[in-house]
């Protein structure tokens, strides 16, 4: 079984992915970690040193590698992964399930404000400007996210409840 989690940064893809993998007794992969391991560099250094186009090409290549070479895993993607290089169509074609972990803008702001230092994309954005930034980004990405097989509403639900909800949707 191949399960892919998509959603905006801070939506809980890694947290839910790890818990779900443990419950299903299958491996967990984080696409960003796969990229960092293969390129022996951090995502932010790759972006800063080689640029976004290089990063997106490698992201597409490694996504295809993971989806075609491995079996029985949960894959957490980067927030932008579904939006480039036909990646969402690739995920829908090669994975058994694609889940969109959907959270409201206020919910994302509440989570991300606490993690700004670790998030290069929003590190330098004033707290007051964060809702508008996230809203604009979500508007641009939503058409990709909404192609997922299942949309999981995540606001005001604890991780265990979300894992149980996702598990209930697996055939």
UniProtKB/TrEMBL annotation:
Belongs to the shikimate kinase family. This is Shikimate kinase. Mg(2+) binds at residue 14. One of its GO terms (biological process) is amino acid biosynthetic process. The keyword Hydrolase does not apply. Substrate binds at residues 32, 56, 79, 141. Its EC number is 2.7.1.71. It is found in: Cytoplasm. Binds 1 Mg(2+) ion per subunit. The gene is aroK. GO terms for molecular function: ATP binding; magnesium ion binding; shikimate kinase activity. Monomer. GO terms for cellular component: cytosol. Its cofactor is Mg(2+). Its main location: cytoplasm. Pathway: Metabolic intermediate biosynthesis; chorismate biosynthesis; chorismate from D-erythrose 4-phosphate and phosphoenolpyruvate: step 5/7. ATP binds at residues 10-15, 119. It is an enzyme of class 2 (transferase).
